[in-house]
Amino acid sequence: MVGDDDEFLFKEEGPELPTAVDVSAASVRPWLILIVDDDPEVHAMTRLVMKKFAYRNRPVQFLSAYSAEEALGILRNDPGIAMVLLDVVMETDDAGLRLVPRIRDELGNSQVRIILRTGQPGQAPEDDVIHGYDINDYKAKTELTAQKLGTATVAALRSYEHITELMRSRQGMERIIDASSNLFTLRAIDRFADAVLRELARVLDVAPDGLVCVPRGSARADAQILAAQGRHADSVGLPLGHSVDPALAAKVMEVLRARQHHFDDNDAILWLRTADGRDAAACLHVGRSLDGLERKLAEVMGAKIAIGFDNLHLYDQVKRSHKAAVIALAGLAEYKDPDGGGDHGLRLSRLVTEIAFALRQQEGWDRIIDDEFLEQITMGAMLYDIGMVGVPDSVIRKENILDADERHQMEMHCERGAAILEKASRLVEGSNYLSFGAAIARAHHERWDGSGYPHGLSGTDIPPAARIIAVADVYDALTHRRSWREAVPLADALKSIEEGAGTLFDPSVVAAFFQVRQARGRTR
């Protein structure tokens, strides 16, 4: 039986509690309310009078705890509880009061709404409790009628809804900021597109299952898959129409044609608008209908992704411009050397990059050769002989042995080239392909045993990129015609490289060179 203090707890007063006409607890997610009271009758009566209650077309589901410790365990394991009806006097006279700071501080739960109710208000004066504890309402059981309980519950759930919406919005924006930071550090389109799926899934708190694609051809009749994860993981690089379910392909193509987002019960498909009209679409299989906040977060994330695509395009254009300038400079150096074949710099750049890739698999080199190293050596390798512009034509084209003065002029091209590139590199902050190229230009004639020039460096004192260039440069020079000789037979050139390991060349670079030769599988 309910005690004397609780006899007015659910006295009828006024109209019925708010209800929803067509609410099905089986199909609509209920509000979770935790009853914390040591009297089982209080639990039973609360359920009885609130059985028709609904707020925003969602019913309530009650959980029960009969002590403060039991309540703490339930709250710890189910953070989705919206409201707590908390008795003050249970296992101790102030068990309910002591539970409040544990919920707020120990569990870090600031969003759950706590309504304190007591049958002995004298033991916990209202003014002291309201000011001293982080609760949201205080009711004496003698005044808490069925109608007042309903009113208090509506107010608490409305407050909980607003707080959780704000928290979700803040968390979503924090995820977007983190995701944007992660995306904007990527410079390769395939890695960027792959990261788009991961970061979009993180923002929406779902598994990364989906794809990113761009239209194909001027007619935009199909799209190419740039990145895919989950069920589409094997579809990267393939046409959308031949790789996924026709219904999904149709939805994605409609997004690209209509240029607007699409959300349904299974998929979120974002139209990624870019500044130059090179639109893209990101499809994520969310498996449910997104609510309004989630859609808004997805749209904001989509705008960030689109900016990332624009930045990638601009970055690619800058890279192309730099490469064009490098090729022009390399061509200037080759103009002084009629035996270079006209594409010596490009040949060398390709070979050097392949050797660096092979070296990257070796222990020790894997800490030296990262993505930035590969990018810079590809460009810097084309500039390694820029200092040849200062060598007189009479020295470059001389067919006989150079005298001491002529040899000095030839050897000066290393320092001269480094000085040219270092001066230009000072216009750019940090390490760049010009400063990288300067180190190559200065040291590409140094030899592993210290017999090279201009400074007689040896072993690992020679910059890694210069050690790679040394092998590639000698190989290219041997296998192409010079003014004073024909090209050396391939077998002889390879033998020279092999015999130079440990004296002229870094043995590990020579090993990587032969690994590249084997991978190429060609005779020339």
From TrEMBL:
PROSITE patterns: HD_GYP, RESPONSE_REGULATORY. Keywords: Phosphoprotein. The modification 4-aspartylphosphate is found at D87. GO terms for molecular function: phosphoric diester hydrolase activity. Residues 318-524 form the HD-GYP domain. Residues 32-156 form the Response regulatory domain. CDD domains: HDc. Pfam families: DUF3369, HD_5. It comes from the Bacteria. One of its GO terms (biological process) is phosphorelay signal transduction system. SMART domains: HDc. This is Phosphodiesterase. It comes from Niveispirillum cyanobacteriorum. The lineage of its organism: Bacteria, Pseudomonadati, Pseudomonadota, Alphaproteobacteria, Rhodospirillales.
